[in-house]
Amino acid sequence: MSNHLGIVKVDTEKISHLPNVNSLLKLSLGLVLFTIVSTALVYAETLSVDDTSKTECGPGTVLKNNVCELDNRCGPGTILVNGECIVESSPESSSSSKVIGKELIKGIVCAFVISGIVAIFLGIIAKARKKIN
Fold it and tell me: Is 8 helix (H, G, I), strand (E, B) or coil?
């Protein structure tokens, strides 16, 4: 078909199969849960990374002069006083666990923000679809 200006009009097909709002919201929720789980797994993996030396000794031993010897030091939360390990009076919280906690919270918040943006976008598409029909 052409009008008086010579411009050809083309009839386009209407897209008959678009996903409904419920399936889009379920997909968005699935993406949020996937992001949260993957964030937790990434940070759980980074907690165990402590590669200070290439030669490792077994539990209860330390490396001295490239030889593993018995560890006479006290464990975490204790100090050596007169040859005995005594519990520290004022335990200090680890700053690395605070940093990891903050990073985990940031990751979860970012996941919710991204999923909210996706949900708003999908809602706009669904409303536009209703107006067309």
Answer: strand
- Neighbouring C-alpha atoms within 13 Å toward the C-beta of 55: 9
For 109-124, the pLDDT digits (tens) are 999 999 999 989 888 8
Chain segment 60-85, per-residue pLDDT in tens? 787 888 888 877 777 777 877 887 78
Prediction pTM value = 0.32
Amino acid at 40: A
- Backbone φ and ψ for 23, nearest 5 degrees, come out as -70, -35
H or E element in which residue 89 lies: none
Distance CA(15)–CA(127), nearest Å, equals 15
Give the closest residue to 25 by CA, choosing from 94, 120, 89.
Answer: 120
**DSSP letters of 63-75?**
EETTEEEE--S--
Residue the block writes with tokens 């706009």: 124
Q: Are 119 and 23 in contact (CB under 8 A)?
A: no
